[in-house]
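Homework help board

Subject: predicted structure for assignment chain

Our instructor gave us this sequence and asked us to write out the predicted structure in token form, then describe one feature. I got the tokens but I'm not sure how to describe them. Can anyone check?
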Amino acid sequence: MIKATSERASYQTSFTNGQDVSMADTTSDKGGSGAGFSPDELLEAALASSMNMTLRMFAEKHSIPLTSVSTTVKLDQNYPDEAIFNYALELTGSLSASDRQLLAEAARSCPVVQTLSKKLSFQD
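My token output:
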């Protein structure tokens, strides 16, 4: 569970899971100070970090010689009825074509992809 709390600066918001704390804000053109991640960046970060962790776990479990992975995610909001997450994986290590294919498939099955692929609803 995440709890978000308003800070003194306009729109600046701290959020915590009860142990770790971080900051969100909006850009100055929207009245914020840009002193934290925007909400859309937090969505991108959730997906990128989930893919990254999933690939590292998958590689370890299957003895794939993945040295490191860098995941870039950009939310494309140019379509009114769709949210499109464009992503790129940068994989390093002595990886075969087969290893790379397996890792690409694993990225598409990470927990956040699974969650975002479901029908969403919001309850208060």
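Reply (TA_rk): Your tokens look well-formed. For the description, you could write something like this. The mean pLDDT is 96. That's the kind of observation they're looking for.
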